[in-house]
Amino acid sequence: MSRDSDVDQVAATLRLSIGLLLRRLRQVQPVGELTMPESSALVRLERGGPTTAAALAKLEQISPQSMGATLGALETRGLVERRPDPQDGRRVILSITEAGLQALRDRRNARTEQLAQALSTGFTHAELEQLMAAAPLLERLAQSI
């Protein structure tokens, strides 16, 4: 079964444009903002709930030592907390704190503001409507991958 060449062209164009957008959003990082590993660990704790450092390292596909350094930095800033595992006192369970949740909210708000600023200065009303119409399609595409 052959694919339509239009599908391949759309796929290549989307990969390039979405990749550029994500890289630009990541490049412009306010001072004191979370690093990518810190943000990723916090999001995992936010969505998945309390867990061990080893489990986080496995999910992120990084070494336990790297995850330990990331979690240590987050703990120093009060964004995660450690508690003994109620089932196994030898293990430590990590969870996100209210300050960690706020840091994630702040990060998301900063990214949204970054996009809003770019949209408000360089796009017509018609273009904004096109982008808004495309958003659900992009979300559906992301969910189908």
Which features does this protein show?
two-stranded antiparallel sheet; 2 strands; 6 helices; 145 residues; mainly alpha
Task: Please describe what this structure looks like.
There is one protein chain. The chain is mainly alpha-helical. The protein is built from six helices and two strands; from the N terminus they run H-H-H-H-E-E-H-H. Helix 3 (53-60) packs across helix 4. It is elongated, with a radius of gyration of 19 Å. The two termini are 20 Å apart.
Summarize the helices and strands and which ones pair or pack.
Elements: H1 5-27, H2 36-48, H3 53-60, H4 64-76, E1 80-84, E2 92-96, H5 98-122, H6 125-144
Antiparallel strand pairs: 1-2
Question: What series of H and E elements makes up the topology?
Answer: HHHHEEHH
- Low-confidence regions: none
Q: Which range does the strand content fall in?
A: 5-15%
Question: How many helical stretches?
Answer: 6
Mean pLDDT level: 91
Care to give the gist of this entry?
The chain is mostly helical. It has 6 helices and 2 strands. 12% of the residues are buried.
